[in-house]
Amino acid sequence: MIRKEMIAMLLAGGQGSRLGVLTSNVAKPAVAFGGKYRIIDFPLSNCVNSGIDTVGVLTQYQPLRLNSHIGIGIPWDLDRNNGGVTVLPPYEKSDNSEWYSGTANAIYQNLNYIDSYNPEYVLILSGDHIYKMNYEVMLDFHKENNADVTIAAMPVPWEEASRFGLVITDEKKQITEFEEKPANPRSNLASMGIYIFNWNVLREALVTLSAQSNCDFGKHIIPHCRENGKHLFAYEYNGYWKDVGTLGSYWEANMELIDLIPEFNLYEEYWKIYTKSDVIDPQYIAADAVTERCIIGEGCEINGKIYGSVIGSNVTIGKNSVIKDSIIMNDTVIGDNVTVTKAILAENVKVGDNAELGVGEAVESKLNKSVYSFGLVTIGENSVIPAGVKIGKNTAISGVTEKEDYPGGVLEGGESIIKAGDEV
């Protein structure tokens, strides 16, 4: 086995509970984004564009969609005999079998995988952020400072700093202190959850702390390294970065793609975002259809009007239907005379004729006000919305629903319909 200078370990096992019904049956990194991508495409593409050819993807929650999307890594040129992409689920061992508990525990359970490449450096990534970053530049910074650990950090507005884990640095960017969501922050440099470790330093920390339950990088590994005199540095990043962990931030990040001059450009030649692409028929857009400020995927049939929306592939939108400020994922079928306003429809949803989604005032969700907010209608994958119903804001629907599920043909704002067997 050829020794690798740096390999990446991509943490993609999270449930993403703050995305509600969007992640009932799929891991957050596998959720569709931007019409043709999935969230995990961004860190994977960053790895390839940064010259990293060995990536371990750690999966756990609902891994099927993620596994089939990644496959053997062909779209990212990661189908290699030596290295490439490897999906790493928890597995049965001779002495015990356990789920990953905590981000660092997941890495600890894969020591043998990392050791097989004997890398000098290990890059730790999350699978649920939207951004472009050249990890090679971060590695150069790590080497120049003779760092043991480098943490990517980005400036956030001072008024929001108390929501983040913050690093305090000296003039050379060496980390002197950490503050976890402080009431009165002394820094506005927020950790991005992206780390480069010297492998010998990380390995020692993982082995030492292996008995710690829910072993985590932010809570356990980083403090351990600091307490043991290791050199920790902050690599400051000033580009676009979005944690799409809530329905609101997920919706916003999609909407930012269709700005006149998007802050985050999916189409730059020098930093491409790669994804698994199926062979799909061309779009069909009817002569009297309207498409303004939107992304429309391949294989769509558009007979209605679309304004300020992101439409995935193989979506059908019927005659006289109007879609505004919404995200419609792959393989969804919307009937005739339907209006959809500020909604997120997951994959393979069916909406009957004359339905109205996103009506009335925004009312607090009775199901989970911290998840179902932002005035959105959220429909989980494989759901069916019957013809002629009206659906209010801050609502959630999951499953095959029927007319009887809607009292008087209406799902009031803040209400939900979650069919048996579906999670929220």
Could you walk me through the main structural features you see in this protein, from its secondary elements to its overall organization?
This protein is α/β, with parallel strands linked by helices and 424 residues long. Helix content is 16%, strand content 28%. It is built from eight helices and 33 strands. The strands form seven sheets. The chain has a seven-stranded mixed sheet with strand order 5-4-1-6-11-8-12, sandwiched between helices. It starts with 5 loop residues before the first strand and ends in a 6-residue tail after the last strand. The relative contact order is 0.12. The model is unreliable at 92-97 (pLDDT under 50).
Q: What's a quick, concise take on this entry?
A:
This protein is an alpha/beta fold and 424 residues long. It is 16% helix and 28% strand.
